[in-house]
Amino acid sequence: MNFEKTLISGVFIKRYKRFFVDVKIGNNITTAHCPNTGSMMGLLRKGNRVWLSKSDNPKRKLKYTLQIIENKKSKVGINTHLTNKIVLDALKNKIIKKFKNIDSIKQEVKFGLNTRFDFLITKNNKKSFIEVKNVTLSRKDGLAEFPDSITSRGLKHINELLKAKKKGYTVYLLYIIQRDDCWKFEFAKDIDPEYCKLLSKAVKKNLNVLCYDCKFSTKGIKLNRSIKIKI
Questions:
Q1: 1 in a domain, yes or no?
Q2: Model confidence over 79-116: pLDDT tens digits?
Q3: Would residue 2 count as lying in a domain?
Q4: Are residues 91 and 106 in the same domain?
Q5: Please, which residues bridge with residue 14 across strands?
Q6: What are the pLDDT digits (tens) for 152-207?
């Protein structure tokens, strides 16, 4: 997934009202959009280096969007809207081993009355749903965790995937670690025990769980390697 334009470097000042951050660009402090609904635990340290994109849309109130935060010399992608683009790029380029020989890819596919899954893929007439989750939390060296806050939406997606399983679909949860400094992945039972309990039960009912990390460049963010999961 390549950025449309070269990112602009700045310094993190503070986050507030969830979707707003103040950053210092050069000698000026400006307010930028923060496209992440999670707590962003461990990342919001004043003085952290950040990278932002700038919009040319004259109707947009906030010209800048926060994309990457550098934490302890490691880059972390915080824009959850980019996660599906990273996965789509990986699917098209056959980076994910499980999905190397798929026949078709559809995005934002409706299931039931109130659910849309991120991807529907087809292979030899067999259909699979993939729901993607963005991961930024790391509280121990080399260990990524999910979630970073209580997630009722995450609970809903697990339950809906199990419903799809009963209707004959193969179902996957794909966790994307938008970091380049983790080689293990676990679920944060202390943060959302209900989510972790339901996930463990769902895995026993053949919910497939995959995890990959990312690599960063000046051009963009791409899927990198499969990461070990502890459930």
A1: no
A2: 999 999 999 999 999 999 999 889 999 999 999 889 99
A3: no
A4: yes
A5: 22
A6: 999 999 999 999 999 999 999 999 999 999 999 999 999 999 999 999 999 999 99
